[in-house]
Amino acid sequence: MDTYDTADNDEHPMLKGLIKLGLFLLAQGIAVMLMAFVALLVSFGTSWSATTGQASLLQPGDARSGSLLLKEDGVTTEAIRLGIDVDITASGPTLRARVTQIFRNPTKDWVEATYVYPLATGGAVDTLKMVVGDRVIVGDIKERQQARVIYEEARRTGQRAALTEQERPNIFTNSVANIGPGETVLVQIEYQEPVHQSGNEYSLRLPLVVGPRYNPAPIVQSVDFRKDGSGWGTATSDPVPDRDRISPPVLDPARNAPVNPTSITVRLKAGFALGEVRSHHHKVKIESPDNTARVITLADGVVPADRDFELTWKPADEKAPSVGLFREHVGDADYLLAFVTPPSAEQTTQKPLPREVVFVIDNSGSMGGTSIVQAKASLAYALSRLQPTDRFNVIRFDDTMDVLFPASVPADAAHVGDATSFVSALQARGGTEMVPAMRAALADKLGDTGMVRQVVFLTDGAIGNEQQLFETITTMRGRSRVFMVGIGSAPNTYLMTRAAELGRGAFTHIGSVEQVEERMRGLFAKLENPAVTGLTAKFSETNADVTPAMIPDVYRDEPLVLAAKLDKLAGSLEIKGRVGDRPWSVTLPLQNAAEGNGLSKLWARRKIGDAEVARAMRELAPEEADKAILALALDHQIVTRLTSLVAIDKTPSRPEGAPLKLSELPINLPAGWEFEKVFGERPQIPSQLRERHADARTSPAARRPTPAAPDAIRLPKTATSAELKMIAGLILIVLALILFVFNRRRLLLTDAA
């Protein structure tokens, strides 16, 4: 009994010690886990509190479709958002468009937003409104520099302001200053434009995106000498001095959702019974209030702004009206708009003259994707239409150039076969050096005046040095006629129409592979049939200022469109010309003119175009042309390269001292384009390129990145394992403490024994 008790008493302290040691180790394990958790909180707590503390800061996965995220100081934020609504009323010969751009600022900062966007080349922009809350501020037309000064002053003093500027006749910039945190500002512009007619078909085109422009490097200098005969002048070396203003940041579609959602409504009031109404590149819903009207909306509600919207309509009768006459009284003057379609050339007896046709095809990087497919199919069709009596040649260009034959060759089967093989092997690559290709095409080596000489130029027109091309055509056109074929979803229509005008030709657009045969057939109808030449217009009883000043030749199925300012609406208009080898004339009594809208704006816009052409052809000195343009723009309140619209909210909104951030709104890559063909292979470090440089093919590293629009949210790989090392160190310290306590306890138990 005594032995049992003694053993029991000896074992009890040991058991208690083990229990205490187990509880101690459990407590230490829990402590280690808590310390590790605290270490993680200390490491990442700043980022969590920043992203959860305000609604404007997001994680990349939280972004909604159509939003753009920017990363600054390790924090992901939603960028300025833009929505676009377009409402068009087409009434008879003209259309009125209202474009509303909705700028929403989801950030906590005061922001200035700039957005570069396209408009129709022939549109006259005459209205700017800025809507803030329930206030509507109407813009005023000012000289460009004066408007910029007014805007900058309002921007500096914290007033909300909007500014509309023209960069090209088809490229505009809207700037909106002092958009407050969480605030939405609406900017609304309106413009007037004539409806286009070709044969039996009427159409309107709404550009939605500015394609990235190739801007040649500033190498060749141009010199302007003073007129005072002093021998002094100025030299400019940059062919695109405003390259930064026409090169908005472009999102890579492989790394970003589409932005700038757009809704479109067209209210069509044709003035005659309508037949087929068709949208060529967007799905639409069509309502029919009556047989002369249609309401067209997008079937999907909104679409990304990444391609032109094209709508065509035809009359229910087999033939469209061949004559249209419309008038408008503004101030003390009457304005007239006349459409006359001459008879087709088949009614003439002239035998077609043999032709020399030079085909030029653009195979630069911007033509990658569907555009090069369209261009090659179009050129293959054109080669198949050549006649045995024709001669031809083919030129291809990117930032280099090849001429297939040393000189134009007969259009026999062997030569056409060689050309077809040459075209089928082309690949899109490199920059867009268009001017050398145009020079080569206009070089008239045959000099055979017994042949009609035609240049057919297939391109998307994605260059910034349009003026150099116009000067080349003006200087070298000789007896050649230039026919431009616009390729792709967003061609540069300003370049196409002006080049065709200066080259005494015509412009055709092909927006999809399905349109190739139809549109090329229409082009060859123009190429193969004599033009209506020697056109004159004479008013019998009134003084008239007519535009265009030099009436161009008219090709098959094209109407002659004249605009005039009259001192009184009386008498008649007589138009004369030659259709092939036969004289032709028509007389239009002015009292039969119907009421029209916006004709004074259209007349002024066309007069401004006349002055620009005369300036390009050196028929007017630059100072004289600018003086005429400025007077017309101020009198008729329209935006030009010399005038702008500015709207200022008189009440300051941004607190004094609060910073203002600039946000350049990005645009989508035009549909069908390939990002890497335009900007080079995607780099490992995300970057955005503002413009296409002359060295786009050979030295991609030299291109300038755009910080305003990163193509993806990627965190930099600069992290270390510091957190893990800290946790490991803490664990080792705790283990050392446990071992120290355990050894200390053993010593105490040994001493006690």
TrEMBL record:
Segments traversing the membrane: 21-44, 724-742
Region (Disordered): 227-258, 686-713
InterPro entries: CHP03788, VIT, VWF_A, vWFA_dom_sf
Cross-referenced SMART domains: VIT, VWA
Keyword Membrane recorded: yes
Domain VIT residue range list: 65-193
Keyword Transmembrane helix set for record: yes
Alphabetically ordered keywords of this record: Membrane, Transmembrane, Transmembrane helix
Residue ranges annotated for the VWFA domain, each copy included: 356-527
Biased composition (Low complexity): 697-713
NCBIfam families noted in UniProt: marine_srt_targ
Descriptive protein name: Ca-activated chloride channel family protein
